[in-house]
Amino acid sequence: MIAELTVEATDGAARTGRLRLARGEVRTPAFMPVATRGTVRSVATHEVAALSTPSGTRFEVLLANTYHLMLRPGAEVVERLGGLGPFAGWPGPTLTDSGGYQVFSLSPRVSDQGAEFASTYDGTRILLTPELAVAEQERIGADVQMVLDVCPALPAPIDELRRAVDTTEAWARRALAVRTRTEDQSIFGIVQGGVDPELRREAAERTVALGFDGYALGGLSVGESRSEMLPAIDAAVAALPTDRPRYLMGVGDPVSLVEAVARGVDLFDCVLPTRLARHGTLLTDRGRLNIGRAEFTADTAPIQDGCGCPTCSRYERGYLRHLVAVDEQSAATLCTLHNLWWVLRLVERVRESIVAGTLGELRREVAAGWEAGPPA
Fold it and tell me: Would 376 be classed as within a structural domain?
C-alpha cells in the first residue's frame, strides 16, 4: 500500500496532516519512539502506547531496526509471531530502518554488491545486500520499510559523499526491483549527500525519479553542526514532492526537530530522549535537567511544573534522584516515561502551532529554552 499523506494545514513550509498506512493513520508531524530490538529500552511497549496528553495525543507509529531483528531473534521468528506489531505488542503502524546506519558504524567492507560486516552478537560475517534488506523487512512486516543506504560519517570528503549518493541510488533501484509486498507495506527511499546543499538537492532529485512511497533524509546528525545540517535539509526538501511524507532520520533534539518541521519535514525518530533518560537526564522546557545532582536530594517539586506525564504526576525530584543514586532499575523507566511524554507534548504543540499560524513563536520559545537553558 502506498503511504497516503493528506495535508490539513500549513504555516510557511511547515505542514500538519495525516499519513495513512496499512495499519492506521498517523498524525503529522510525528515522532517515532525507537524500539531497536522490538522494544523501547527500559519500558514495556504497552507503557509507551498508553502515554497520552490531556487532549488525547498518543504515539501512533513505532520504529524498529532490521539489523538487530534479523540477527536476534531472526526475521523468520518475527514473521511466525505475526509480524512486528503483534510481536512487539504495538497496536498501530510500524516502520523498520534497513539497518544501514548500524552496519556502517561497524566499518563494513562496502562493494557494489552490498556491505559485509561482523555480527555484534557472535562475530558471524554477513553480507547485507539491498535485496536481503528488502526480504528481511518484508518478513518482519512493518508498514514502512527503508532501503539500504550508504551512511558516511561527517565530516567526509566530497568524493566520499558522492560515492555514497551513487551507491545509495544503485541500491535503491535494486530494492524496488525485488520488493513483492506492495499491498500492505510502503517503501521509502533515502537521500544522502552530507551537508553539501547542491549534492543533497541532486540526490533528492535522483531519488524522487525512482518513485518511492515516501522519502527520508539520512546521514545527518552524525557529527555536523546544526548550522550545517539545516541548509542541507532545505536543499533536499525543496526537491521532494509535496504529496509524499518526508522523514528526517535520527534527529530528535528539540531545536532541530522544530526547525526541521519549519522546513517541511513530517516524521522523526531518535534515541536521544530514551538514552538521556537512562543516564538520569530529563527533558524540560528550559533544557536538560540532570536529576542525579545533589541539589535535588530533598527537592519536593516534580521534574517540571505542569507536566502531565505518569512520572511527574506521582513522584518528586528527590525520590527520582534517590533512585538514580542507588542505580535502581525503575529510575530508567520513570525517566524514560517522562522524556517520551515531553517529546509527545512538544510534537502536539508543534501541530497546534501550525494550525494556529504561530509556529514562529514556538520556534523562538524552544530555542530560548534549549540554547540558554541550564546545563545537563
Answer: no
All cell numbers assigned to 170: 544503485
Which one of the listed residues 11, 143, 269, 285 is annotated catalytic? 269
What lies within 8 Å, CB to CB, of 375 at 6+ separation is 287, 288, 290
Does residue 159 have an active-site annotation? no
Residue 237 near residue 201 (C-beta atoms within 8 A): no
Whether 264 and 283 share a structural domain: no
Domain finish residue from 240, 270, 300: 270
Q: Which of 97, 196, 213, 253 is catalytic?
A: 97
Query: pLDDT tens digits, residue range 109-158?
Result: 999 999 999 998 999 999 999 999 999 999 999 999 999 999 998 999 99
Q: What is the pLDDT of residues 53-82, one digit of tens each?
A: 999 999 999 999 999 999 999 999 999 999
Domain check: are 357 and 252 in the same one? Answer: no
Rounding to the nearest 10 degrees, give the CA dihedral for residues 340, 142, 18, 283: 10
Q: Specify whether 229 is located in the same domain as 346.
A: no
Domain boundary among 220, 250, 270: 270
Contacts with 294 (C-beta within 8 Å, 6 or more apart), sequence order: none
Is 243 assigned a catalytic role? Answer: no
pTM: 0.97
Task: Determine, yes or no, domain membership for 18.
Answer: yes
> Domain range spanning residue 358?
277-371
**Same domain flag for 266 and 350:** no
**188: domain CATH number?**
3.20.20.105
Q: Which residues in the chain belong to E strands, given as ranges?
A: 4-11, 14-21, 24-28, 30-32, 62-65, 94-97, 109-110, 115-118, 125-128, 144-146, 186-191, 214-217, 246-248, 267-269, 281-284, 287-290
Q: How large is the angle between the packed helices 329-356 and 317-325, nearest 10 degrees?
A: 130
